Amino acid sequence: MRANTVIMIVLAGVFGVLAVVLANIWLANQRNALAQSNGVQASTIVVAAMPLKFGDTLSADKLREIAWPAGAIPTGAFKTTKDALAGNGTRQALQAISANEPVLASKITGAGQRATLSAVLGEGMKAVSIRVNDVLGVAGFVFPGDRVDVLLTRTVRSDNGPDKSFVDVLLQSVKVLAVDQVADESKDSPTVVKAVTVEVSTKDAQKLTLAAGAGQLSLALRQAAASNGETTERITLSDLTGDTPEDVAKRQEELAKQAAADAAAAEERKRADAKIDGLAKAVDRVGSQIDQLSKVKPAPAVAPAPQVQEVVKQEVKYVQPEPPVRATVGVFRGVKLETYDVPRQK
User: Fold this and answer.
1) Please, which residues bridge with residue 337 across strands?
2) 181 and 281 inside one domain
3) pTM greater than 0.70 (yes/no)
C-alpha cells in the first residue's frame, strides 16, 4: 500500500472522530437550553378578547387569559379573569384597549365606579373646559388624547395712544381629555365642537380661568411626539406687516376716525328715521281719527214743540196828511228850466 493512501485514511478517521465529538457537544448544549427553558416559571395574564373603547363594561366574554413569563408581568396586570372582575359592581374601560392587549388597573375603573374624567386625571391634575368654535378648535381635528398649545389673544386699551393687540402662548403641551362630552380616545371622525376639556395643574387651571375673561382663547394642535416645551415670544400687530409702532398708531387712529364718522352717520340716520317714523305715526293717528269721525252717524233733528202765541188785533185808520206849506214851481225860459220855491196857496 502506498504511503499517500495510508495518510488519507488516517486523516479521514481523525476528521470523522472530530465531527462526532462536535455533534455530541452541540446536542448537549441544546439539551441544557431546553432544560433551562423548561425550568422558567410560567404564569397567566388577562388580556382583552376584543377591542374595548372608553366606557365599555368588562365581562367574562370580553376578557381571556394567556400564558406569560412570571418575571415579566406588567405592573397593574391581572392574573385571572376572576381577579379582573372581582369586587362589588362592574368595571369600565377608561381608554381604548386593543385585542390581546393586557388589561391593566390604570386602564379600567375600580369595582362599581363609572368611567368618568375624574378617574382619568393624573395625580394632582385638574380638568378645565375651554369654549371654542370651528376656528379656535382647529376645525374639529382635536381629539381626546391629543396635546395642544393654548393661545391667548387680547387687546389692551391705552389712554395716550391707540389700543394694542397681541397674542401670547399661555400653556404648552396640554393633554386633551374630552371634546364636548366625548372622552373616547378611539374617536377618529372630525367634529366641530363647542368646548374642549384639558388636563392641567392647579396653577394652570387658575391661568385658564382668568384668561377666559381677559381675552380670547384658541388652540394649536401639536405633533403627537412633540411633548417638550419651546421658547415663545409675544406677537403684536407690527410683527404681521413689519410696520413701526408709529405706523400702526397712525393706521389705528385713521381707523378710529373712520369708525367715529360711521357712528355719527349712523346716529344721524337713526334720528332721521325716528323723525320719519314720528311723522308717519302722526299721519296714521290723523287718518284713524278721520275714519272714526266718518263712521259716526249724525243725531236726528227734533222739531221744537209749537208755542201758543196770543193773537193781538190791531185797528188801522187812514189819516189824511197835511199839505206841505211850500211848493216848488218850474218855469221854462226858452229851453232852460228854472225852479222857484213859493208858499203854497190854501
Assistant:
1) 332
2) no
3) no
